[in-house]
Amino acid sequence: MAIYEFRPEGVCAQAMAVEVEDGVIREFQVLGGCSGNLQGISALIKGQKAEDVIDRLEGIKCGRKPTSCPDQLARGLHSILAQEAAAE
Known about the structure:
By secondary structure, the chain is an alpha+beta fold.
């Protein structure tokens, strides 16, 4: 089990932390951003495979921004999975 922290870009959230165990998201926390929406995202993704979450959230935009908190989470998960694969 590992906790990964990263800084999202182009969104209101200042930092994200996700705990992944065997490719499954156990916890997700965000500093800043829209609290209710991010709590909802957290509740929905816990227990889900990181790859499934990426498939669902990647490419979501926030208004006219080219990204969103869900998209930034997907990008972070890509990095996490790459790190885990490199460590094997």
